[in-house]
Structure formats: structure tokens, C-alpha cells
Amino acid sequence: MPQQLSVALLIETSNAYARGLLRGIASYTHQNPRWSIYLPEQERGARPPAWLKNWRGDGLIARIENEAIARAVRPLKLPVVDVSAARALPDIPYIETDDRAIAALAYSHLRERGLRTFAYCGDALFEWSRNRQHAFEQHAAADGSDCHVFESRATSRKSPSTDRRRLTNWLRRLPKPVGLFACYDKKALEVLDICRQKQIKVPFEIAVLGADNDELLCDLCTPPLSSIIPAAEQTGREAAEMLDRMMRERRRKRKQEVASRLIPPLGIATRMSTDVVATEDAEIAAAVRFVRDHCCEGIKVEDILQAVPLSRRILERRFREIVGRTPHQEIMRRRIEAVSALLLNSDLTLGVISRQTGFQSQEHMSVAFKKQVGVPPGQYRRDQTATRNKHPD
């Protein structure tokens, strides 16, 4: 019978992302029942627990987000995998979300709504928040757009009301309309609460996007919060795989190399907080809404011209200036998004999907999908299904 391994998880259970990590680790242990798991109660940012100093298990998966935990983990003589972006112990293998990819997705989501002014609301306590801020600012700068930044101050944690007053004043002063990316859903909830109290209209004056897709928080928000979906469960499972490999190599007395892995986000759960076409150009706003509502009905640019009283040349020019794409590109982008969703969430054949998303034929859909995504739709479905089977919920 295989030797039982004792593994501790120094991961909080108080937020959606960490719980996703734990679900991923659990899915690995269900298929590899040699692990005995120790999961103590732990708050985010808390000091290391007293038991850690004398831990005599076989391995540890930890969120090493502060120097205190780093000091406690550093002397441990056992394999450790870090699932934090802080990199407080750079010699320890780590696996984390790709913050640059998250920021790129956030900027694209807000930019495609016609917004040209942006804001980032971060938390100075966390390295991943600073990483997202810098990448988000870079995308805005490359696009020639302004980006305003707010950071919660660690010194204000003892007096949350001070930080809230700062945030309130910052939100009031922001030029409107603005697309705001909050470092995570809890911060976005605070932004939306202030906007509601101060009668700042969301999404028309401030379109708000969070991260982590904590469905409970997102639904509690008014209006419901759009949020980036991290691949938390995949990250947790791959961290477990990494630790298992390290423990096996240790038993075989093989040299262990420092590994690293960044996991891109899965997409965005779009809700009412970013449901806006932010432009004073009424005709282009109407055109964008028409594409959004009818993209899967086989429409062409000529159909937009029937709904919007503009010449094709003027529509093309103004649409590109505001949206960043031509009307045809926007139609195709939204159709491909619809195809992707049906490939992932249904068992419909490619022929049925092509008809439901407005393509003339399955062949036409396949060519368009490969051009935009990089692989044919059938391969995309197989790859994603294999990933889900490998990393089940």
C-alpha cells in the first residue's frame, strides 16, 4: 500500500479565489488518496500559526503573502509550493494567476465599451494588486488613454473610515465617464456602495469591473458586478501536482529545481456594472447595441445601416474611432464569443452551433473561429474538455 503523505494547506477560506484553490487541491487528492490533509483556520494576511514552526509533515502549499509567513516557512526542511504572487521566498516553486493577462482582459473589456478614460482601485498590501495596476496602466498608456489610480493604504487599516473618505473623494473627482478596474471583488463592492450612496450612476458614469468572480458578492452588489473569472481550481490542482512531484523527488533524493507557472484567467462574467456603451455619439451607441442584440442572427453591416441613419463610410470611420474595430470585426468578435460559449457549455454539433450563431455554414464558422482563436472549433472543444476532465470541479 502506498505511503500516506501528510500535507498542510496554509490557505485562507474567507474569499472565493482561495476557496477555488482549495477545490482544485481537493480534486487532486480525490484521485490521489495518499494525502492526509491538514487545513487549519487561517485569515488572509494573518500571522503564521504557532503549529507551523514544529510541523513535521511531508509537504506544504501556502499563500506566502507577507514577510511574517515567509520567515516561518523559510527554515522548514520540506517541499513547499507558494500560491501567492508576493514572491517573498523567490527560491520556492510557485504557481499563481497571470496578473498581466488579467489586466489585459480588464482593459479590453472596458475599452470595447467605448470608454477612453480609465481608473484602477488597488490594495497596497498585496503584490498581485500592484502587478495588475502597472499592467493596466501600461495598456492605457499604449492606447493614449488616461489612467487614474487609487491605492488603499496599509496604515489606514486601523481606521477604515479614513480610507473610505479618501476613496469617496477620489471617485467624486474622477472624470466621467470612466471605466474602473478594481483589484478584486471586495474592493469593487466598496466602490459600488460609495457610488450608490453618493448618487454616482453605475455604469453610465463609472463602469465597474472586479476580479475573482465571487458570485455571492457579485450578486449582492447594486448593480450586479461584472468580474474576471480566474482559473483558481486549475491553479490549485496544478499546485498539488507540483507538490506531489517534489515529494516524490525528495524521497528519491533527486535534485529539485525551482519551477514557476502563471495561469491566465478563464474570461469575464459580464453583469450590469459594465453594461454600457460610453459615448456621446448616439448613432454609434445605437450601432453597438444593435450588434450586441442581433450578432447571432446573421446580420451584416448593411443591417446596421438600416438601424442607424448613417452612410457606410461615416459609420465605418466613427465606429472604428470609438470602438477600436470596424462594424464587421465587432460582429465577428461577438459571434466567436457565442461560438466559444456553446462549445464549452453544450453538446450541440458544430453544424447546429454555426446556425445558432449566424454563420452561413459550418465551414464558414470554422474558418472564422480558427482565424480569431488560433485553432478550429472542434479542437478547441476537445482541448477545453480535456482540461476540465484533468482538472474537475
UniProtKB/TrEMBL annotation:
Domain HTH araC/xylS-type span(s) in chain numbering: 285-383
CDD domains: PBP1_XylR
Keyword entries, A-Z: DNA-binding, Transcription, Transcription regulation
Residue segments, region Disordered: 370-393
Biased composition (Basic and acidic residues): 380-393
Top-level taxon in the UniProt lineage: Bacteria
Entry's Gene Ontology molecular function annotations: DNA-binding transcription factor activity; transcription cis-regulatory region binding
Organism encoding this protein: Roseiconus nitratireducens
SMART domains with a match to the protein in the record: HTH_ARAC
Protein's recorded name: XylR family transcriptional regulator
